[in-house]
Amino acid sequence: MKRIxxxxxxLRDGAQTxxxxxxxxxxxxxxxxxxxxxxDTIEAGWPGANxxxxxxxxxxxxxxxxxxxxxxxxxxxxxxxAEDPGLAAVLAAGxxxxxxxxxxxxxxxxxxxGASLTEAIDMISESVGHAVEQGREVVFDAEHLFDGWKANAxxxxxxxxxxADAGARWLVLCDTNGGTLPHEVDRIVGTMADLLGGDxxxxxxxxxxxxAVANSLAAVHAGARMVQGxxxxxxxxxxxxxxxxxxxxxxxxxxxxTGVTAEAMAELTQLSRQVDDRLNRLPDPRAPYVGAxxxxxxxxxxxxxxxxxxxxxEHVAPELVGNERHIVVSDQAGRATxxxxxxxxxxxxxxxxxKLADLLALVKGREAAGFAYDGAGASxxxxxxxxxxxxxxxxYFRLAGFxxxxxxxxxxxxxxxxxxxxxxxxxxxxxxxxxxxxxxGPVDALDAALRRALEPVxxxxxxxxxxxxxxxxxxxxxxxxxxxxxxIESRCPSGERWSTVGVGSNVIDASYQALEDAxxxxxxxxxxxxxxxxx
Length: 535
Ligand SMILES: CC(=O)SCCNC(=O)CCNC(=O)[C@H](O)C(C)(C)COP(=O)(O)OP(=O)(O)OC[C@H]1O[C@@H](n2cnc3c(N)ncnc32)[C@H](O)[C@@H]1OP(=O)(O)O
Ligand SMILES: CC(=O)C(=O)O
Prior knowledge:
Blueprint: E1 5-8, H1 24-37, E2 41-43, H2 51-58, E3 67-73, H3 85-92, E4 97-103, H4 106-113, H5 117-133, E5 137-143, H6 145-151, H7 153-165, E6 170-175, H8 182-196, E7 201-205, H9 212-221, E8 226-229, H10 243-253, H11 262-265, H12 268-278, E9 296-297, H13 300-308, E10 326-327, H14 335-344, H15 354-369, H16 377-388, E11 397-410, E12 416-428, E13 431-439, H17 442-454, E14 465-473, E15 484-491, E16 497-504, H18 507-525, H19 530-534
Helix pairs in contact: 1-12, 5-7, 6-7, 8-9, 13-14, 16-18, 17-18
The structure holds acetyl coenzyme *A and pyruvic acid.
Pyruvic acid is lined by residues 13, 101, 141, 143, 174, 176, 204, 206.
């Protein structure tokens, strides 16, 4: 079985993602997660490029499986390799491997470096040779190799030869601008592998045409044995090849060996979400293998077949990558969908149970009115439990009323101020409670007032966060009287997320419904009771 060397650049190319700013602590924590995953090399940054990366390389965490590589560029034009301060900083990091990027597109050499083609080849050769003399394994990132090959193949080839002759262990063909297509990658990598030996060729693909994973697979198919990529496809512009997609594809489908064990693969979904959490990003529900929708079945025909054999609509078993199957109930559902979803909630109903038909009619009626349960599993569960009177949530609180005031005024200094304030009256634990809270907007104020009223009685609501709030106009033709749907995602401190929905012609009222469901769901799943909570 052929072994693929996994080279992770999340902490270097991933740091070039717009909106991403890793702290040293983030990089250390992610390096440990990558090591646990089983990648072979971790490129943690560019020592010498900024104080944070230099400090990180001076105090790298201890790894069990992987090794660190320091990234940098070949010597600058006009300098000797041994005298180039940038190269010296990369080597000073003391990592067993260094990755040096060099330009292999003639246009870049003349336009960006302002150097001659001969000098560009010398820069590569001398820099690689210098690092090899220092006892480092050199990974040569051939920047723009594919565009360079199309423009001037002999020059691109000579750049790679220079790196190889100077002792580079790996020649990584970079699709830096991400514009190369899989059939071109296959052809060019195949030519290079024949010329220089496939077991020293690597691929570094960017996703500008949505083909970074496909291009990496094409390169492997053509003989490449190192794949560079990032967690969740982070990286410059549209990102790099996503290792979270590539790893299961390489191993489960193509039978390649990597350092990732079956046990580590079963933690892939969790890892992907940990990365998003650290970056304060919402996980992509449609991410291959690990997204919440990757094994979510919605169409009634799909679910009916999945109920008989999950392989009918699943390309791999979700457990292999630590994901899980979801049966999504909506107006696209049939009885089979509902039965499966109910079984998941431990509320099984037989196919001929009249309650099943009633429930399906209820769900489809609510969907027709604007509710969307495929994105609001918690509201669906509350609806079902109430309709079947099965483990229905207690009346944790009763709303007597609320008032929301939104004020926009010109301050004395001429600036515009806005203020939102909500007053909520509830009955909680048999007692009336009235609170007032302010917020960034009316929904934030309403949320704050509800929490202020409930948290003293229900401590398990502390730390709950509203992580997403979406409003959709369902009847745009009705103008400002339109029906709106509000979807809210909530998260508790332990990381569990749930989604709720509200619908109405008043957006604040729809928001209240979704907020109330979010709080009730949390209390129900925590098994809260008024008495226990009050005590
Ligand atoms: C394809 C990639 O993603 S490569 C990685 C890209 N990542 C980054 O650039 C992030 C980190 N970069 C940085 O912090 C800075 O750019 C530094 C510290 C590396 C360099 O900063 P500066 O010395 O101020 O140079 P600056 O960034 O303005 O320009 C790059 C210089 O490197 C030269 N250069 C670019 N690529 C190479 C190369 N492969 N080999 C040698 N020199 C190169 C350019 O010609 C330019 O030289 P000039 O200043 O004489 O015009
Ligand atoms: C080296 C690198 O990041 C690139 O060529 O895209």
